[in-house]
Design brief:
By secondary structure, the chain is mainly α. It has a single domain, classed as Arc Repressor Mutant, subunit A. It contains 6 helices and 3 strands, in the order H-H-H-E-H-H-E-E-H. It is elongated.
């Protein structure tokens, strides 16, 4: 498709639409935080960990075994995911188990998977 044909042939601003969109847009700070969240999802290793945790609560050793990663590498990524409030942990004796922080994280993963499957 010719790129030029994908733009308007006239220069006409639809004031009512622009005004409504401007009123409904989230604040810049909120949009910045959304972009930062998507950066976290931009790493395939972190997405793999989130996908594993979408299946079951797991400890670092389990995640490493499933994803063929070292404990150190898993721990590093879990730290990032925890700081972003995408995963949470709980201690059971000497072990720490990780799970998705809430249903929103699971929804994001599922929506992304559905979108890719449609492709």
């Amino acid at each position: 498709m010719d790129e030029e044909k994908l733009t308007c042939e006239t220069n006409h601003i639809h004031d009512e639409v622009c005004e409504q969109v401007s009123l409904d847009m989230p604040d810049e700070d909120v949009l910045y935080d959304v972009a930062e969240l998507f950066k976290i999802f931009g790493d395939s290793t972190r997405v793999r960990i989130l996908s594993a945790l979408a299946q079951a609560e797991m400890c670092v050793c389990d995640i490493g075994a499933v994803l063929n990663m070292t404990k150190s590498a898993v721990s590093h990524q879990l730290r990032i995911l925890r700081q972003a409030k995408l995963v949470k942990n709980r201690r059971y004796g000497k072990e720490i188990f990780y799970s998705l922080d809430d249903d929103h994280v699971l929804s994001i993963i599922n929506i992304a998977l559905e979108h890719i499957a449609e492709g």
